[in-house]
Amino acid sequence: MKKNVLISGGSGFIGKYLTHLLVEKGFSVAVLSRSKRENTENISYYQWDVNKQYIDENSVINADYIVHLAGEGIADKPWTNKRKKVIVESREKSIELIYEALKKNDKKPEAFISASGIGIYGAVNGPLICNENTPSAKDFLGTTCQKWEAAADKIASLDIRTVKIRTGLVLGKDEGFLKKLVPIFKLKLGSALGSGKQYMPWIHIDDLCSIYFEAITNSKLVGPFNAAVFDNTTNTSFSKTLAKTYGYTLWLPNVPAFLLKLVLGEMSKIILTGRRVSSAQIEKLGFEFRFKNLKDALKDCLLE
């Protein structure tokens, strides 16, 4: 009988790729959805509403594994105080809803795998190489990720193996943050941002989904893991490589930091800062990145 993986946020960028991989690997997939949807041969849909604190409890009762990807997008809207609250609560309350359903039904799936972010190390520039033992930062990104992971730790308190995937910038075909950059770089109008020295830890969507698959199937994975290639890519080197993918050399000056701060406000920290992040812990357990070269990763995502 097929093992069943329940995914929250299954209709998003990462969720769709992960669903495809799991089905390909012989799993059945269940997706938590806010709207009613028809089941398919390999995918079942269950309704939930985080704001109303409603979940179809059959979703967790039937789950052998749970992958939690749901949460409001960090970079979707300006960081007003109201928006910040929504970002944090969407992560805490959604896990709380799953936690209560598990506890009520005395259900113990084989693993609970939650998304997290390298933002836990803070919106800071500098030479420090962050590993999973690096303390979380006290700024908005650091606090958000810390609360996100603390919510996941409640699942661990039920004696369920819990894994937290601290994700870098995800490269994918027509998806993720590349979606906003591609139209500009295609017109040969790309440029670096701010100083250009800020680090940009990245990961190809195929490798990220493979890490989730490893977290599902490998019982040795417990706790936090960085999911980003450690290659010291900066915004300047990333921008140059992206431009070369489209056959040209950067010619425009860097977009000034003050202009980005004026347009984006506090949210500009996402693109003006970046930590160096080590991937040693996941690799020590035998995981091998398929894409460790940025040029190859971008070509795979962007060129037909």
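Above is the first protein from milestone M3; the second protein from the same milestone is given next.
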Amino acid sequence: MEDERGWSGGMTGGTEAAGRKKKRATIWEVAERAGVSHQTVSRYLKNNGGMKPTTKAKIDKAVAELDYRPNLIARSMRTRRSNRIAVVLPGLTTFVPTPLLQGASAAAHEAGFTTDVVGLAGGAERRAEGVLALLDSGQAEGVLSFAPLGEVPDEGEGERGPVVVFGEYDDQMHSQGALADGQPMEAILHHLADLGHRRFLHVAGSQDWASARNRRAVYEKTVDSLGLESYGVVDGDWSVRSGYEAAQDLPADAGVTAVLAANDYVAMGVIRGFQDRGVDVPGDVSVFGWDNEQFTEYFRPTMSTVRLDRETLGRQAMRVLLARIQGQSAPEICLGDFFEVVSRESSGPAPRRGR
């Protein structure tokens, strides 16, 4: 079955070759022929008032020339309740925001909906096409996307479910916007400075991530503003190995008493690298991670880190979509105060004498 975008194939304005079925014209083709937007054509089809006579005449002519007929079967299917919501991720990604998905699914379940996680390959425009196909098929009453989407036309309530984009990730699921905020690095340095630490090392993440760049920038700025010392910044790649090698390569006389790692995996490598050298954590050097991965509570020593309440963010994003599905005023997503510096066994007072 085809829909108004003509997923079964494009159409031609004239007679098809013999033996071939004529394809249904789409709302986009009507808009192009009339020289107006597809939203204007959508209003025309719903008989919404306020349209200029000249605009209506152009669309009348385009509809007649293209023999455009709305796909009433597809529309009727879209009005059926499925009680399902699609959660969209990129088709190929090495990072799955599990806490976000858990929070979103929990909020949907509490409202009587089930969720399907769908991977849509291609860029933002290609994903938008996939989202339209999902909604037009009647498989989902709404879509929550954690990946960027191209333009998804709004064809009005009762015809197509709403789409909400949680815009804190890019096409590769790299954090951006508020999720990439590096300010907790300042709080970590204040905390460690209060414990007597004065010389630090930062093992950074891949610099093609906004979050890694922001954490590094805040680290360098705060060290300078507090009158502390930075032994340097190691260009890491978010991996355990990059942290291990940084700890192994640090000269014994570097004087570093605290290492700030880009994430918990890097911090794990730093701690193991020091342990293999006979350097005590936190007796000789403190180590801080970032992300509050589950293993940080069970590692030895338990790891100091930065917690981000992604599950609550997932709930908030889903509640925005649920409100739109139910025709209610959508709440705002609040990204403030979701970071928390968590001090555990891997950090403590600076040793009386530097390494």
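Note on the second protein: The chain has a mean pLDDT of 83.
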